[in-house]
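Observation: inputs received (chain + zinc ion).
Thought: call the complex predictor directly.
Action: predict_structure
Action Input:
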Amino acid sequence: MKGFAMLTLNKVGWIEKPKPAIGPMDALVKPLAISPCTSDVHTVWEAALGDRRDLILGHEAVGEVVEVGSLVKDFKPGDKVIIPAITPYWETVESQMGFHQHSGGMLLGWQFSNVRDGVFGEYFQVIQADGNLALLPDNVSVEEGVMLSDMVPTGFHGADNAEVSYGECVVVIGIGPVGLMAVAGANLRGAGRIIAVGSRDICQKAARFYGATDTVDYKAGDIVEQIKTATGGKPVDKVIIAGGTLEAFEQAMKIIRPAGIISNINYLGSGEYIKVNRVDWGLGMGHIRIIGGLMPGGRKNMERLSNLLKYKKLDVSPLLTHRLKGFDQIEKGLLLMKDKPRDLIKPVVTI
Ligand code: NDP
Ligand code: ZN
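Observation:
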């Protein structure tokens, strides 16, 4: 079969591989819609995970089940399914501890395009299908469904980890598709004021659509000053980091209230250390928490989040700025995600 792969660092291309063999609990799936991710860009062009050779990329897909193992109970060939970016082994101790994202070791719940061939192949293997697949609701298109693989759960994880609550003031740094879903998640959790930081007009407009009350352009000056001006100097309750550089942590620390939460969902692809200013951190006694998390995967989370699309509580269509058709367009889609033209939020390729 054909797949679009990371050949080595800084190099991508089409390769031929054998069709994956599946185990008794697994499913073989063919993609119906895929979306390239900024994470693929960090992996290939920033060496964020180290080298990978001939690894098929991609971890965001809606697909059709082609074959299931003998122990799979709830899925059958022909089913249209959402494949979460995170597909852990559910029996591991990390999963039992509530952090399936790290099943088998740090970040290893993230299998596709990390330690296993991803979804940019004609076929791909989903381990533990009963635990890792979810049926696509009938009234959700494959293009919209693919936003459930990663963008919706990641953004919402940022809002969940920030423990956003009614009426709070939340800053979201970075409003690409992930940050936009963090805005939407914070809004659904009842935030009062949401200050969204990004420079591109299309992203600022989408942020307002998803519930941002204020937008700040980081290219127009120091964001700490701009946010303090907007709040009249009052600290904010929560900060969600979904873009920018390592400096975002220092900036967040300067605007957060005592006992506030800084919730990172950005994939920190380069740089060495995150700096925390001693005084901003309340001299070590400010009860300010920093948390960073890989999105939750698995079936239940997909079913739960797909209800938001099924029952029209969340509209992901504004994210889908570039719609491509055909398996061979995967390369173009990934390069769009790398080059980020000003009118791009997220590309989706239907197959
Ligand atoms: P994008 O590149 O589309 O968006 C990044 C955002 O950050 C844009 O709004 C951009 O602004 C903004 N930004 C860039 N530089 C700065 C700066 N100096 N200060 C403030 N804002 C800045 O990325 P995605 O939304 O696709 O992904 C966001 C991150 O989430 C990526 O690192 C991705 O790998 C990661 N990710 C993490 C996952 C997880 O499980 N935790 C899962 C999926 C993705 P503009 O373009 O407007 O200038
Ligand atoms: Zn992704």
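Thought: report the result.
Final Answer: The chain is about 25% helix and 25% strand. Residues 177-188 form the longest helix (12 residues).
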